Amino acid sequence: MKYFLICILIAGCSAPEKINHESYNETHRPQVHFSPKANWMNDPNGMVYYNSTYHLFFQYYPDSTVWGPMHWGHATSKDLIHWQQQPIALYPDSLGYIFSGSAVIDKDNTSGFGKNGIAPMVAIFTHHDPKGEKEGRNDFQNQSLAYSLDEGKTWVKYEGNPVIKNPGIKDFRDPKVHWFEEGKKWVMALAAADRIIFYSSKDLKTWNKESEFGNNVGAHGGVWECPDIFPLEYMGKKVWILIVNINPGGPNGGSATQYFTGDFDGKTFSPYQTDTRWLDYGPDEYAGVTWSNTGERKIFLGWMSNWQYANVVPTEKWRSAMTIPRELALEKEDSLYMVASQPVKELDVLDKTSVNLKNIDAGNFDLTSKTGKISGPVYLNISSDKIKSFSITLSNTLNEKVVIGYDESANNYFIDRTKSGKTNFEKDFASKSIAPRLSSAENVNMILVIDDVSVEMFADNGLLVMTAIFFPNENFSRIHIGSQNDFKIKELTFHALKGIRH
Ligand code: FRU
What we know:
Layout: H1 2-9, E1 39-50, E2 53-61, E3 71-77, E4 84-90, E5 97-105, E6 121-128, H2 130-134, E7 141-148, E8 156-157, E9 172-180, E10 185-192, E11 195-201, E12 208-213, E13 223-234, E14 237-247, E15 256-264, E16 269-271, E17 277-280, E18 286-290, E19 299-303, E20 318-319, E21 326-333, E22 336-343, E23 351-361, E24 364-366, H3 368-371, E25 378-384, E26 390-395, E27 401-407, E28 412-416, E29 432-436, E30 444-451, E31 454-459, E32 464-469, E33 478-482, E34 488-497
Parallel strand pairs: 1-20
Antiparallel strand pairs: 1-2, 2-3, 3-4, 5-6, 6-7, 7-8, 9-10, 10-11, 11-12, 13-14, 14-15, 15-16, 15-17, 18-19, 19-21, 21-22, 23-34, 24-33, 25-30, 25-34, 26-27, 26-33, 27-28, 28-29, 30-31, 31-32
The structure holds beta-D-fructofuranose.
């Protein structure tokens, strides 16, 4: 009662979240991935690390389980794995809905938003004006600022919004800002229909256009959205990675994340490659970008769904989850720089029991005979000296299954969810997704992060990633490995994982 009274006196205050263990056990609720307690979620937004806390903001519609007027929801974590959902951070206002964007810690108070030595957390986002859109105008998406002096709990919108006015481009959104130390300035990558526009600023408020990139390179099967740009190093060589999400036009239909490697001088991005590369070939990773303020580490998170069916997936109380956070690294394959992803090492806080097996004949191997019936999320790591066609089948007593594997004749990895249970909510959901193997190594390794409703596959040290969701009528309880060839698994490590609310 006392808390309630204090709360109604302090604007913006809301009761601390009580973890209700039961509420994370609904049918199809992910157990090791962040999902909102209730209602609609899409893109991760404003990801920033500050004072030992990871902040995750996200596209959120608190009044329904389908997309609607966008807010920024908020969750925090100390370890990237256990999340605490916080009160809504940003609400729609007279300039429109709050679409995707980023957040930075303005350490030097370049914006002047800081007070009493407190560095402001500044959110840079798109204001989407639904009225302008309805009227058929082209300038209804503009870039705006908000800041927080209490670590993201309460926010003030900048009175000078918008800070970048729309020049007449219908799709003009999703600003991702970072501090470009060499030029002592802020740099923004902004998605503008079929290209990325770079802007720079000394104070986050006044922005100058620097250059455009990409209208004639990469994939263009849909509109470009949610970019990100950051450097990664490979043996002392600094390579800039430009992430560009695209919808539709992904390699297995609908939404997906592509990337370019190149140089960046604070003005212009000069690509090393003009072909299309995908950070994740599966159908269910989208709008993925990285955390800011994490030093040398680059940690990536995507929305684990696809615009093709996100609004109709069969979950009742909430819709969608995020991927497992992924550590990005630069690799070199046949003289090409490539980005590799791995689940963050923090995931091992969830290890419950483990089984380690060596020299398995993978012809017809029931893993469950060694581990016991599967009853929850699993981390599986397998490696072999040779690569041959093989499959890993997750199944239940209803004969529903998801098959993950490698096909040597086509040199493809695949995830087949055609018989995975509930699939008829959308005509193309019952699909087999494929991805060309990018590595030419003779050996193979594969990590699978398996949740009750998703699998993330990291093959060849994370050079090839595929994410897929599924909705079985009964959770998968068996894992079977099969191969038509003489395929030996040199080592297999199985970890049963605790759920993040247990
Ligand atoms: C990507 C996206 C963004 C936009 C947001 C709206 O999924 O379409 O481009 O800002 O979602 O919710």
